[in-house]
Amino acid sequence: MNSDNSRPSVYETMKSILAQINGPQNQKNLNADLAAFRNSIGKDARAIEAWSILFPMLPESYLGTGPLTKEERSILTCLQVYAIGQQGTQKVQIDDSRSFGESLNKIRDRESESMDKYFNAMVTSNTFDEFAYHLRHLFKIGKAKGPFSVNFARLANDLYWYQSGKDKQICLSWARDYYRPTKTMNLDASGDAEENKMEENN
């Protein structure tokens, strides 16, 4: 949806950031970086430790002059949940799922009434902060149920579009994937062009 094709997408930027964070050249700093992102939750514009890690990895066009830009907030929020997922011995893995709704669908079962309640609260949120709060809670539930995997690049991209007036479309897409009967779920993302049309096009 951006006519400037030279501007990197949030999707590709998030993939690049994860590669840098987990690259061999950053292994001595990895634990400290992840802790900084976890500690930044609820602070956003006061997350000084996270700024020094995040901002150098962002394209110049993403950096704002006032409050956090949509790109900055989307990627920071995604890195926060990623950092939560790397705590402990059972770590959240990276996959190629269509959405966070599909990631949750893979661990949803008949005993998931509580997860359903939090999911419904998330997709009916009135603000991005409320949405992100429920997202983190569901992420922790998913990690506890495990094994759990998430397409973090797609998540960051969806968070960007959520803030860009596409919140209802994102929530509808996630709900379809979350409640989709597992036995009929088509894991081939190429067959879901409508839900993927926003990906990599910010």
Describe the model.
This protein has 202 residues and is an all-alpha fold. It has a single domain (10-196), classed as Peroxidase, domain 1 (Orthogonal Bundle). It contains nine helices and two strands. The chain has helices spanning 10-21, 30-39, 48-54, 70-85, 100-105, 113-123, 128-145, 152-179, 193-196; strands at 93-94, 149-150. It has a two-stranded parallel ribbon with strand order 1-2. The radius of gyration is 16 Å and the shape is globular. The model is unreliable at 184-194 (pLDDT under 50).
Distance between the termini: 5 Å
Tell me the helix content. 55-70%
Average pLDDT level: 88
- The value of Rg in angstroms is 16 Å
Number of domains: 1
What is the N-to-C order of secondary-structure elements (H for helix, E for strand)? Answer: HHHHEHHHEHH
Produce the secondary structure layout.
Elements: H1 10-21, H2 30-39, H3 48-54, H4 70-85, E1 93-94, H5 100-105, H6 113-123, H7 128-145, E2 149-150, H8 152-179, H9 193-196
Parallel strand pairs: 1-2
Summarize the structure.
The chain has helices at 10-21, 30-39, 48-54, 70-85, 100-105, 113-123, 128-145, 152-179, 193-196, and strands at 93-94, 149-150. It has 202 residues and is an all-alpha fold. It starts with 9 loop residues before the first helix and ends in a 6-residue tail after the last helix.
Task: Label this structure with key terms.
single chain; 202 residues; mainly alpha; Peroxidase, domain 1; 9 helices; 55% helix
